[in-house]
Design brief:
196 residues, seven-stranded mixed β-sheet, 7 strands, 36% helix
Length: 196
């Protein structure tokens, strides 16, 4: 896998409904609570600091944002769930948008669920994973922001998060977008799903 494949990523589309997306050969999607760092992670994967718009305000991503890694190969950044300074109606719209996206994309090869290393798994994270397990869609857990906790606590957090989420520790990807930790490993996993 060449890193330049990700460096060549381009913004492809921004839509408010999954049925507005065009054909893709293969795609992977990132989902997680608001402010968990999905957009920052997309930027880190692609080595492009300003590719996906980021904000310190939870709920900045309000649409399905698609980034192309070569023809028909996509990385998709979805709206966050949980706390965001928006109305209940808008949160419900996001939920519906995400569910329609998950169920209506035959080219969706994997869903990456982001969890905050410092915050730990939330009720909504557990609900998302339970729902994904029920759909039999391939998914992986990514624990982001590992730079925010000490090495000693990270060892403990690896065990407790795996147990809490019902996932084998070796099936969790541990990353820091700030320090670049785990990004190459994640690129390799994504390449496998997208057949890059």
């Amino acid at each position: 896998m060449s890193k330049s494949v990700f460096n060549a990523a381009q913004f492809h589309a921004c839509v408010d409904s999954a049925d507005k997306l065009d054909y893709a050969q293969a795609e992977v999607a990132f989902v997680g609570r608001s402010n968990v760092g999905k957009s920052s992670l997309v930027n880190a994967i692609c080595g492009r600091r300003l590719l996906a718009k980021i904000s310190k305000t939870p709920g900045k991503t309000r649409t399905i944002n698609v980034f192309s890694i070569g023809y028909g190969k996509w990385i998709v950044d979805l709206p966050g769930y949980g706390f965001a300074a928006v109305s209940i109606k808008e949160k419900d719209n996001w939920k519906y948008m995400i569910e329609c996206y998950f169920s209506g994309r035959p080219s969706l090869k994997a869903i990456f669920v982001l969890v905050d290393a410092h915050v730990g798994a939330t009720v909504l994270d557990r609900q998302m994973l339970a729902w994904l397990k029920s759909t039999a869609r391939p998914y992986r857990v990514i624990v982001n922001k590992i730079d925010r906790i000490t090495q000693t606590k990270l060892v403990e957090q690896r065990r407790s998060l795996a147990l809490d989420l019902g996932v084998m520790p070796e099936h969790i990807l541990w990353v820091s977008t700030k320090k670049g930790t785990g990004i190459k490993e994640l690129q390799s996993v994504i390449s496998g799903f997208l057949l890059l």
